[in-house]
Amino acid sequence: MSDKKKIKPRTRKTSKKIFVDVKDVSKSYTMGEVEVQALRNVSLSFSAGEIVSIVGPSGSGKTTLLNVIGALDYVDSGSISINGKKLSSMKDKELSFLRRDTIGYVFQNFNLLEEINAEKNIEMPLILANLEKEERKKRVEKLLKSVDLLERRSHNPDQLSGGEQQRVAIARALANNPKLLLADEPTGNLDSKTGEKVLQLLIDLSKTHKKTLIYVTHAEISAALADRQIHMSDGSIVKDFQTKK
């Protein structure tokens, strides 16, 4: 049993609707013969349109928390609700639609398809959503413009810099107009200057399009760009506060 003081869910005076609600969530993994407690009775809520960073050292539970919020992994106990609906009550097909239509993901390793160009990578989620070809074309054009990549649209990932690849990944995450954006160490594979520009772009686009953005980082300077910071250690929340602007 951990002797750390449990951080209670933060109560905020806000008229904004709670969009993501995490209640008493625990998650463990087995690594060889050792059980690792990745999350320990975590309770948090995120308002619609909120920009939040999750910061902490490696192994603190940041990525695990992001994965269970994003329905990429299951919890051992507790519950997670998105827009009022519990993930545990949803069938596999419903979860698939949720991941496709409601959540946009940005990963540290970009996760672009190497054999197709930037334009096609951004278009892929729209094809999976069965959007008409003309509508896909218009939306991709708009997204390329929003990340300043119109002139690089025909380039494959190996012809793009790391920053450009991550901008393609951001545009792809926004393709189906999700309400929630989850970014796991989005600047981890970039130099500090490029990383700062990419993260600021992600934040600016989230604010412009009124998205809830939750991003994971190990760097406090990156965490401070968010409106709110959550600090984790050993699977628990140790700090939860508004960033001073």
Detailed description of the structure:
There is one protein chain. The protein has seven helices and ten strands. The protein is of the alpha/beta class and 245 residues long. Strands 6-7-8-3-9-10 form a six-stranded mixed beta sheet, with helices on both faces. The protein has a four-stranded antiparallel beta sheet with strand order 2-1-4-5, covered by helices on one side. It is globular. The termini are far apart.
Radius of gyration, taken over Cα atoms and rounded to an integer in Å? 18 Å
Spatial strand sequence of the major β-sheet: 6-7-8-3-9-10
Count of DSSP strands: 10
- Approximately how much helix is present in the residues? 25-40%
Return the structural class.
Answer: alpha/beta
Mean pLDDT: 92
Strand content: 25-35%
Elements, N to C (H/E): EEEHEEHEHHHEHEHEE
**Low-confidence runs:** 1-5
What is the global morphology? globular
Biggest β-sheet strands, sense, barrel: 6 strands, mixed
Number of contiguous helices: 7
Q: What is the distance, rounded to the nearest whole angstrom, between the alpha carbons of the first and last residues?
A: 37 Å
